[in-house]
Specification:
single chain, 20 helices, 0% strand, globular
């Protein structure tokens, strides 16, 4: 499938779609209060905005392509990354959100600055920039690059550049509002497309029972035996929480919608809504891969499972729509990441350290320069990720994230749950801990690749070990560090009790999730 297979109608739909998006972006930027901050969509987000925005940022097209590939090769087990998340989204709603909103911060480094002091805030800002560059920009560009490369037959770096140019234009023109408005509309389309794919696929194969028979029985288990090479149950049970806390509770681009909530209650309802939406990840994103195995078992490259389904099952015109929605969702993810990048750099590094007296106009200009530089840097990282050998797309993603997460997860958890944690401990964890963690990652992925050297544990287990090592280090440093702690008091909580509705919604979600875990286990 290359560009020449795209029908004129497909091209028409693709172009029309982007014109509509641009219009919305321009409209949103005109509506913006003049001179107001481009960054946090003016503390006005309602729960459905928050839910869709978190879920949308989380389930970009990179997820689609990677999940279908994982479904094709291993079945439903990679759904753990979607379904186990509800525990950590709950942690965000009940533990972190009240403190974030109560302390009235716009960025998470600012929150940590209140807890540990300015030195930590500076280090964290740099750490955040590294993570946005690697985990958001480079990984999304990598997945998007695979998609564009598959269609237009051009090399990775060109694909990445095309995506970046569109995204940067979008971010600079309308800021977060355009992304927030269009997110809702794109997510609805994304759900629609994926649902159509799943339904058409199930009809084509002859129903759910026929599908269950067409693939191996263990494709329907969420817990695999511990000797399973890709998804053993213990490493996932222990390793995912490290990533879960980092991703759902401490990541600027993930938590941004909650920080922009109207109030705590809206934020908690929004987080709960995200939890419900995460249930859809499995039927929408993993199932097409399983269907692809049942329908086209001869497919040589599992990373192409999603587009194979699209081109074979959808009529002309629909293919154009799917590509439009995928590219637009890529743009929205990259846009959110670029936006978070420029927010953190301008507010936490530039204004803080270099130029406290700066004008609003200069701030916005700096933000735009940073956006461009960050974009170029992420292309280079994308090319490096493209050279990783021997892991499928889904596991490339999870392993890269598994090496970024431990220091951040440790610092936030200790910072919130253990009053004795000292500034020195947090700073060492964020500097030495990060170097150690990413260093191990580079060894695991590039220097002594796990495919060739059998001494490595599973990368999720490795992530857990890294977290434990950093955690133990933080405890020891805190106990031996005798300096007084003046900062720990500066975190205010929103004191209101969660409303009955919020509690009920979360209990219901927990019951449903446990039910799902019981249902999808013990099959052959």
């Amino acid at each position: 499938m290359h560009a020449k297979f795209l029908d004129t109608l497909d091209w028409g739909i693709l172009i029309a779609y982007f014109l509509i998006l641009m219009t919305i972006g321009i409209w949103a930027s005109l509506k913006r209060k003049k001179g107001s901050s481009l960054f946090l969509a003016e503390n006005s987000l309602k729960w459905y905005h928050i839910g869709f925005s978190m879920w949308g940022t989380n389930v970009g097209p990179s997820m689609l392509i990677a999940s279908a590939s994982a479904g094709f090769t291993t079945g439903i087990v990679s759904g753990n990354y979607a379904w186990y998340a509800f525990v950590f989204i709950a942690l965000l709603a009940f533990v972190f959100a009240p403190r974030y909103l109560g302390t009235r911060v716009t960025t998470l480094p600012e929150f940590m600055g209140r807890r540990f002091g300015q030195s930590t805030r500076g280090i964290l800002a740099w750490y955040t920039i590294v993570t946005i560059l690697i985990s958001w920009l480079a990984l999304t560009l990598f997945a998007g690059g695979i998609l564009i490369r598959q269609i237009f037959d051009i090399p990775m770096w060109q694909s990445a550049l095309i995506l970046l140019v569109i995204s940067a234009f979008f971010t600079m023109a309308g800021g977060l509002k355009a992304v927030a408005y269009t997110n809702v509309y794109q997510m609805v389309l994304l759900i629609f497309v994926s649902a159509a794919l799943t339904i058409v696929g199930i009809c084509k194969i002859g129903g759910v029972a026929a599908l269950a028979d067409a693939v191996p029985a263990n494709y329907w288990n969420l817990f695999m035996p511990n000797d399973d090479p890709a998804f053993p149950w213990l490493p996932i049970l222990l390793g995912y929480p490290v990533m879960g806390v980092w991703f759902w509770c401490t990541d600027q681009s993930m938590v941004q919608p909650v920080l922009a909530a109207r109030n705590l209650n809206e934020g908690q309802k929004g987080a709960n809504f995200t939890g419900w939406l995460k249930i859809l990840d499995v039927p929408l994103y993993i199932l097409p891969g399983i269907l692809c195995l049942a329908l086209y078992p001869g497919l040589s490259n599992p990373d192409e499972a999603y587009m194979t389904m699209v081109t074979n099952l959808f009529p002309v015109g629909m293919v154009g729509l799917v590509l439009a929605v995928l590219t637009a969702a890529l743009v929205s993810t990259i846009g959110s990441a670029l936006n978070a990048l420029s927010t953190v750099f301008t507010m936490d590094i530039y204004v803080k350290n270099f130029n406290p007296e700066v004008s609003q106009k200069k701030i916005i200009r700096t933000g735009q320069v940073v956006t461009v530089l960050g974009a170029l840097l992420s292309v280079i990282i994308t090319i490096a990720i493209d050279s990783i050998k021997g892991l499928n797309l889904f596991n490339v993603f999870q392993s890269v994230l598994g090496f970024i997460a431990p220091p951040m997860a440790a610092v936030f958890l200790f910072g919130v749950f253990w009053k004795r944690t000292t500034t020195l401990a947090a700073n060492v964890a964020l500097t030495a801990g990060t170097v150690f963690s990413i260093g191990v990652g580079i060894l695991y992925l590039w220097v002594l690749p796990a495919g060739e050297y059998s001494f490595w544990p599973h990368f999720m287990m490795l992530s857990f070990y890294l977290f434990v090592i950093i955690g133990v280090g933080m405890v020891l440093i805190s106990l031996f560090d005798k300096r007084s702690q003046g900062h720990a008091l500066d975190i205010r909580k929103v004191m209101e009790k969660p409303s009955k509705g919020v509690v009920a919604a979360w209990i219901l979600l927990a019951v449903v999730m446990i039910g799902l875990y019981l249902f999808f286990n013990g099959h052959g």
